[in-house]
From TrEMBL:
<protein>
    <submittedName>
        <fullName>Hypothetical biphenyl dioxygenase beta subunit</fullName>
    </submittedName>
</protein>
<comment type="similarity">
    <text>Belongs to the bacterial ring-hydroxylating dioxygenase beta subunit family.</text>
</comment>
<dbReference type="Pfam" id="PF00866">
    <property type="entry name" value="Ring_hydroxyl_B"/>
</dbReference>
<keyword id="KW-0223">Dioxygenase</keyword>
<dbReference type="InterPro" id="IPR000391">
    <property type="entry name" value="Rng_hydr_dOase-bsu"/>
</dbReference>
<dbReference type="GO" id="GO:0051213">
    <property type="term" value="F:dioxygenase activity"/>
</dbReference>
<dbReference type="InterPro" id="IPR032710">
    <property type="entry name" value="NTF2-like_dom_sf"/>
</dbReference>
<keyword id="KW-0560">Oxidoreductase</keyword>
<dbReference type="GO" id="GO:0019380">
    <property type="term" value="P:3-phenylpropionate catabolic process"/>
</dbReference>
Length: 208
């Protein structure tokens, strides 16, 4: 992908001499390195259909707060990354803050986040939020090997908690790397590009 192509896609901009977005993260050094090749797969391609089903099934698990099952859909070398968005002048070449992230997670830290929900200290999710992950605009790309796919999607998260606070929305774009493991697709990398620089949500004690 050329610099012009990268910088023409909102939410996926980085300096010409920089590494991939996940490589700029604190925990990104271990992230899988596969990247897309060629044009998006047609919607009738079985790989696209399998990737789309993965995202829909994942959304169901997150909506139902079945986080233990969700962890099973992740690879052991997962990198889960949501950089902080910043507002910059046109042509700046970047729109995220280096070294800052809402999420910069590996499998261990994601496990710890999920384990905390079961303790008496998870005040941000007790009572639990009512969630609805809306997934759309799914595009799938092949990689250099048949065991990986790059999947783009748009997500709108509705979150309601309690009886007093107003409901909140988060809009974002995601670029996922899926890996075929024992004939099952699993999430190996997720980069989340939020559509706001200032989030209108009290906390991010949920997953995107």
């Amino acid at each position: 992908m050329t610099s012009a192509e990268r910088n023409g896609r909102a939410g996926f901009r980085w300096p010409d001499d920089a590494a991939r977005p996940w490589q700029l993260a604190v925990l990104g050094g271990h992230a899988p390195q596969q990247v897309r090749t060629g044009n998006p797969l047609p919607f009738h391609d079985v790989r696209h259909q399998q990737a789309h089903q993965f995202l829909v099934d994942e959304a169901y698990l997150l909506d139902a707060a079945r986080y233990g099952e969700w962890l099973d859909t992740l690879t052991d070398d997962i990198h889960y990354f949501a950089p902080v968005r910043v507002t910059t002048a046109a042509g700046a070449g970047f729109d995220t803050s280096p070294g800052m992230a809402h999420f910069d997670e590996n499998k261990y830290s994601l496990n710890r986040r999920v384990a905390r929900f079961a303790t008496e200290h998870a005040w941000t999710e007790d009572p639990p939020s009512r969630l609805r992950h809306h997934i759309t605009n799914v595009r799938t790309f092949a990689c250099d090997d048949d065991a990986h796919l790059i999947v783009e999607s748009a997500e709108l998260l509705f979150r309601s908690r309690g009886d007093v606070n107003e409901a909140a929305l988060i809009s974002c774009g995601r670029e996922d790397l899926l890996r075929l493991t024992d004939q099952v697709w699993k999430l190996a990398r997720r980069t989340i590009h939020l559509d706001e620089s200032v989030l209108r949500m009290q906390n991010l004690a949920v997953f995107l």
